[in-house]
Amino acid sequence: MMKNIVTTVIDAGGRYGLYPYWKPFKGELGYYLFEPDSLEAKRLKKKYKTRVNEIFIYDWALGSEQGELELNVFYNRAMSTSCERFKDKITFVGEKQEEIKVVGKEKVPMTTIDDFCFENKIELDFLKLDTEGTEFQVLKGGEIQLKNNILGVGCEVNFDYVFKGMPIFTTIHDYMLERGFFLLNLSYRGQGFPLNEFVNVHDQYGIIRDCDAIWIKRKEHLFRSLIKSGQGAGIKVLKYAAFCLLNKASDVAIDVLLEARKKHGIHFNDLKSTRLYSFMDIQLHKHFYSLKWQPGQSLKKHQSVYFDIFAKEMKTLHAYNQSLELNPD
After folding, report:
1. Distances in Å between the alpha carbon of 313 and those of 92, 280, 290?
2. Least CB-packed of 73, 111, 125, 231 within 10 Å?
3. Among the three residues 191, 217, 243, which one is the final residue of a domain in this structure?
4. Do the domain assignments include residue 224?
């Protein structure tokens, strides 16, 4: 297999399996899923028994140092945490009060992202964090990978004080900005926690407490590191663009692909036999096809941009619709 063609992901707090935006990804994958709840980790190993060569399950915790973590197991096991929650008078009231009742404790081994990657010779591409309060500690345990390798980070963030002594969004955001990343998007769409039933579900309402945030490396940092290393530039750019497409940032994906080709002379021809290349080829075909009915769009411009990226003709009209690769069913 081509060196570094595998897209490597660490998922810290991987309950239920692959995170939604990673499920459509069809490139070469190494997905390292850490779930400290032993029952859930056991279930996940069974769930992914046919994908053991690309999805790896660990019933460990991740943190800022190696050691042991004591997990408070909640009645709603998805909320289990090593942190202490503030008494929540907005979200967990009435019937939901039972969800945050501690029903047990479990001690699990804990390592860091940097130690795990060093021991397993992993150059990490992406990081996903959802550890019920300890996300910043996990992030700090990956300082080396964040500096040298990581392209994008997805993290659950709190905008209010939910866990005692744990940082909120502003601290994590400052940390990421200082390390050459920018905020790509938030999963929040205007629907927070309602205070009563008198809301219009099609409008904004409620109090925003938390959501997922996505950061990605600034282009200047990306290309500076690629020029410095001189290796695998096309692979890194395709991974970066794939992550943008998976997170609804098609404009950022196309922008970085065009800059790679036009400004830095990076090409993707030698990657045609890879699943990563095929995934990006199909996704851009489908994206441009989805734009064809929007006012102001130009099929010729779509074709021109696609050619600038892949140095080949884009399938359009009947050629697109008759393609078994683009329309397998």
Report:
1. 55, 15, 18
2. 231
3. 217
4. no
* Higher per-residue confidence, 22 vs 96: 22
* Backbone Cα Rg of the chain: 21
Q: How far apart are CA 310 and CA 146, in angstroms?
A: 29
Identify residue 66 by its one-letter amino acid code.
Q
Q: Which residues contact 62 (CB under 8 A, 6 or more apart)?
A: 10, 12, 34, 110, 111, 112, 113, 116, 131, 138, 141
Residues ≥6 apart with Cβ < 8 Å to 139: 127, 129, 146, 153, 155, 172, 175
Position 89 scores a pLDDT of 66
Same domain (yes/no): 198, 237: no
CB burial class (10 A; 0-12, 13-18, 19+) of residue 298?
A: exposed
Contact 86, 161 (CB under 8 A): yes
At residue 53, the pLDDT reads 97
Q: Which of 171, 198, 190, 243 is nearest to 19 (CA)?
A: 243
* Full-model pTM: 0.95
Tokens describing residue 70: 């004591």
CA 125 to chain centre: 10
Stretch 197-211: mean pLDDT: 93
Amino acid at 180: G
Query: Could you list the residue range(s) of the whole structural domain that residue 312 is in?
Result: 233-329
